[in-house]
Amino acid sequence: MKKGRVWKYGDNVNTDVIFPGKYTYSVLEPEEMARHALEDLDPDFALNVKPGDIIIAGRNFGCGSSREQAATCLKYVGVQAVIARSFARIFFRNAINQGLPALQSEEAVDSIKDREEIEIDFSLGEIKAKKGVYKFSPFPESVLGILEEGGLIPYTKKKLETK
């Protein structure tokens, strides 16, 4: 069970506002990327987000370029999950590869308010909020393994060590 405060945004939050393109080739360390998370959409986000907070957004979250720094900066700024109506395919995969859960739930997006405290139960596929409990499709066991290990690279390293 994960608990966190919600930061709510709208539709089509693209990778260029998640991690500004002007830093793509000059900011290379994940901790430094985190300082620029969402700065072109919400300049106060990186300054005020707390470890364990959760982003909720509308349709097509992570659209735009295939910039993997978008998922990386969110993970390293402390975001523990992103819940959206839908995700751009490449962002979804980059998020999983970074160990950042990307959950789809239209009902949760409709009902949960900005700064509300919610709980996510990954094993049951549930989001618990003030107005109710919202279901999402649970991840397959392999994806849960990637998320539990903190990303694809640590997951793969662990798999290779146990062989």
Which key terms come to mind for this protein?
globular, single chain, 163 residues, 19% strand, alpha/beta, Aconitase, domain 4
Question: How many helices does DSSP assign?
Answer: 8
- Uncertain residue ranges: none
What is the average per-residue confidence, as pLDDT, rounded to a whole number? 96
**Count of DSSP E strands?**
7
SSE order, as H and E? EHHHEHEHEHEEEHH
Structural class: alpha/beta
CATH superfamily membership, which one? Aconitase, domain 4
Described by the principal axes of the CA atoms, the overall outline is: globular
- What is the first-to-last residue Cα distance? 30 Å
CATH architectural label: Alpha-Beta Barrel
Q: What's the level 1 CATH class?
A: Alpha Beta
Strand order of the largest sheet: 4-3-2-1-5-6-7
User: Percent range for helical residues?
Assistant: 25-40%
Estimated radius of gyration: 15 Å
Estimate what percentage of residues fall within beta strands.
Answer: 15-25%
